[in-house]
Amino acid sequence: SRQVASQCQLLQSSLGRLSSPQLPQLPDEPVSLQDAPGGLFQMPPGDPFPERVTVVWLSVLALACALVCDPQENLSLAEITLRRLAPRLLISLRLLSPGADVLLRQDAADALLDRLLPHGQMLFLNERFLQAVDREL
């Protein structure tokens, strides 16, 4: 998480944007993440992963979402999955105070991850499937 936060801050500063530690008001409508900043980096073997992994990350509002990918996984699919997963996770957020404290509702997040990443496996997601998942959840 520290490396993702560092990557987000580096990207924000390179774009000339100041990052705010406060979470902006969560929108009532779905967020479009087409232009949301993101990237990827590799982590060497060691703690916590025994082999080299690639982390795909996406900055959403003042939060960051990340997927840790094995070497053989499709990174383009990981980015697409993350861009489709992040707005649905935002719906699962609950503000704890007017500041930056948020809580991810575990039951909603677990159900979402179970449907979109069953057993940690990425799926090719189409809009019809996503609409069905949205209705179900």
UniProtKB/TrEMBL annotation:
Superkingdom of this protein's organism: Eukaryota
GO biological processes: double-strand break repair via homologous recombination; endosomal transport
Region annotation Disordered: where it falls in the sequence: 20-44
GO CC annotation terms, alphabetical: AP-type membrane coat adaptor complex; cytosol; late endosome; lysosome
Residue stretches spanning the membrane: none
InterPro entries, per database record: AP-5_subunit_s1
Protein name: AP-5 complex subunit sigma-1
Protein's organism: Manacus vitellinus (golden-collared manakin)
